[in-house]
Amino acid sequence: MLSKFLNTKTLIILLVILGGIYLITKLTEKEDRTFRSEMVTIDSADVTKIIISPKLGSDGQEVIITKTGYEWKLESEGKTYKADPSSIKNVLAELMRMKSERVAAVDESKWNEYEVSDSTGTRIQLFKNKKMIADLYVGKFDYSQPKGPQNPYQQNRGKMSTYVRPAEDKAVYVVDGFIKMSIQPSVNAYRDKTLFASNKDDLTKITFNYSTYDNFVLSKEEGKWFLNGVPTDSIKTADYLNKLARVTSSNFIDEIEPFSHSPAFQVKIEGNNILPVELKAFPADTTNKFVITSSRVPDAKYSGLKAGLFDRIFVDRSEFFPDEEE
Q1: Of 9, 173, 187, 249, which sits 20 to 30 A from 87 (CA to CA)?
Q2: Which helix (H) or strand (E) holds 137?
Q3: Given pLDDT bands bounded at 50, 70 and 90, which one contains residue 179?
Q4: CA 53 to chain centre
Q5: DSSP states of 270-323 as a string?
Q6: DSSP class of 198
Q7: E strand residue ranges, the chain
Q8: Neighbours of 125 (CB within 10 A)
Q9: Which pLDDT value is given to residue 33?
């Protein structure tokens, strides 16, 4: 009788254990189905088009980024622009990098709060030719203060997070980082910002053509620089060439019309292993002083005043000679 009781008790215990294992297994399966560790699971080399759409009611612009061959082009509000390949590469890298840390919500009740609904989120769609291969909403940014005691001799960084929802998923995920900093519904974020770039040692000739000043030519002969045949100061010339070797600006002013269609200042840059590039300055309003254009980026106009762009390019001949002693 005692043996029979023990067998029955043992059987009940085994059934409870098996039931617990079954329940844990089911809960784990449910959690696995809910949790999504990677937001985008594609090969970035397959992407031929990216559409970035702003949230409803914002002042952002829908940006269409299309790959043709090895080149990317931009479209927005009916206009096309030359793209900055590094900016597009950064977008794709950011998307591939996104890993979810936790689930913030499991249904649509929190979509508006986390700004991941179709009207409150920034939508990002990726295509391989005509087939959409990824679709997600990037939402609210969150920052939390660093935990633990603060070190006065060390910078204590907090935690930056972004709420993200795949379009086909009801769940909202938290991913590390400030995603909207590198993925923005603004065409200017992806435009080519480089007016000129080259190794300064490849430069051989720079022609300055100014409507209000005498013209002059800076040329390199046997490794030395001359201005209209006169040897220049090597240090001052090197300073200018270092500035000219990479000229960039993010201050686009496409809406500004210059006062004249004839440039007041022109600089033509020539050298080895580079195509000649012409930089021009057209008189404009007091906010910009000049509209600057580059033959390298023919669809762009840049502010001459902001960030000192005009002064960096268009210099007087005295820039290349020693300062006169008083």
Answers
A1: 173
A2: strand 131-144
A3: confident
A4: 15
A5: EETTS--EEEEEEE--TTTSEEEEETTEEEEEEESSGGGHHHHHS--GGGGSPP
A6: -
A7: 49-53, 63-68, 71-76, 79-82, 100-105, 122-128, 131-144, 159-166, 172-176, 194-197, 203-210, 216-221, 224-227, 230-231, 246-248, 265-271, 277-283, 290-294, 297-303
A8: 16
A9: 45
